[in-house]
Amino acid sequence: MKLYIINHTFHYEMENLIRLFFPNDKIEVCRDEQANFISPCVITSLSNVENDFVAITATAKICDYFGSRTEKVSTNISNYDNECERVLATLIFYLLQEYTGHTPPWGILTGVRPIKLFRALTDEMGFENARSHYIEKFLVTEEKANLAIATEENEKAILDLSQDRSFSLYVSIPFCPSRCSYCSFVSQSIERAKKLIEPYVELLCTEIKSTADIVKKLGLRLETVYIGGGTPTTLEPYLLTKLLSTINNSFDMSTCREFTVEAGRPDTITEAKLKAILEGGADRISINPQTLNDDILELIGRKHTAQETIEAYQLARQVGFKHINMDLIAGLPTESYESFCNTLDQIIRLDPESITIHTLSMKKASDLTTQGMSLYKKDAENAAKMHVRCKLELSRCEYRPYYLYRQSRMVGNLENIGYAKKGYDGLYNVFVMDETHTIFGCGAGAVTKLKNPNTNYLERIFNYKYPYEYINQFEEMIKRKSAYEPFYEKIFR
């Protein structure tokens, strides 16, 4: 598929929009007006047609299909560029909807944070106008608009907890027992990286202490801690104890509202590890089955069974965990609607405090993508049905949507959404998705996002991605933390 750009600069959003309808196609951006427009292609252009107006045109040539739409935009409006981009996106949307018969439920929205966008619209134009704008201008379905409204409402109380000097801490453990076929995160299998684990944890603790020293100097307030990965429970109990002790001894934990450890892979969970986590102060863990269909688990590269997931959950309860989250994925390859519903029903019977429903995202670096898996309209319809079932059943069981985000190349252009019982929202999830306050990242692949509390300005500082890079170039990475103090001194001076 070729995308032709003529007299405008909106190629990024247009490319992402086309990918909603053609997730399996490589999209080539062309800027040559004289090119021969050979099918399949989408041609986009802006041209002056009369005083104070510009004509925006989108044309699609795909196999035997040919469609073209034009709309005029005044050059005198204050948000001229944004409106031109929005109109062009809607023209493409209608053409490709007509050709494919598929209506992406989030309309022309391709961004990660639709809830944050809705909040901004509400602040700008009021609730009713924001809802109308969402549906009529961005072409979001009423179902998804209502979901966004409900989620945003539940987020408000969490966002109000954050103060000007608030921050959260993210700690990365980039090791897994094996790599799942849908995963694109930078993580190393234990078999290949076992010798790196102890030196990695040693340096990670040093980085945590260094970060804490700066935090104390700046007078910042810790709100949440999240240890993720990878799979943190690949660490042996003594290393988990060392890591959690370092965090507890380095930071003022008296203000910490939530301490999460991902215990995502059931095959890494033992009683000794769970006790180390609980005794280390973590009050929330995530046990992630993704599915309780053993055939699907094997297909996606998970080295555990459904029964092991249930046993790991029961063990966590016996050890004493009061807040357990469980993740499911809608749209896994070959999984039927009936199989997904069976998983959902079993998870609900276990009664975790929160449940996160992800949608399969075909990341470029994942094994599924490199092995040539393709997504089709039936996959989108199946995943959409799964989300509808989740909303109905989880609402019936008093779970509420409390955060939502989206990724590129998601099946059906759907979403990832967290549901929780009242009082059990995942605070870190909301803070990080809303970009509410600074997130200090420690460990390989972690990204620190310094947030100015008075504006929307973010400054990113990246750690080295791979454990061996992190270890070999640790001193250079630590030097990057010198940017923390100047950033805050400008704000609080």
CATH topology of the largest domain: pyruvate-formate lyase- activating enzyme
Number of helices: 17
Strands of the widest sheet, in order across it, are 14-15-13-12-11-10-9-6-16
Cα(first) to Cα(last) distance is: 53 Å
State the name of the first-level CATH class of the largest domain: Alpha Beta
Low-confidence stretches: 365-373
Strand content: 15-25%
Give the tally of structural domains: 2
Mean pLDDT across all amino acids = 92
* Shape by Cα distribution: globular
Cα gyration radius (Å): 24 Å
The SS-based structural class is alpha/beta
Q: What percentage of residues falls in helices of 4 or more residues?
A: 40-55%
Q: Major sheet, described briefly?
A: 9 strands, mixed
Can you offer a commentary on this structure?
- By secondary structure, this protein is of the alpha/beta class.
- It has 2 domains: 1-101, Double Stranded RNA Binding Domain (2-Layer Sandwich), CATH 3.30.160; 161-481, tm_1862 like domain (pyruvate-formate lyase- activating enzyme, Alpha-Beta Horseshoe).
- Helix content is 43%, strand content 22%.
- The protein is built from 17 helices and 18 strands.
- The protein has a 9-stranded mixed β-sheet with strand order 14-15-13-12-11-10-9-6-16, with helices on both faces.
- The termini are far apart.
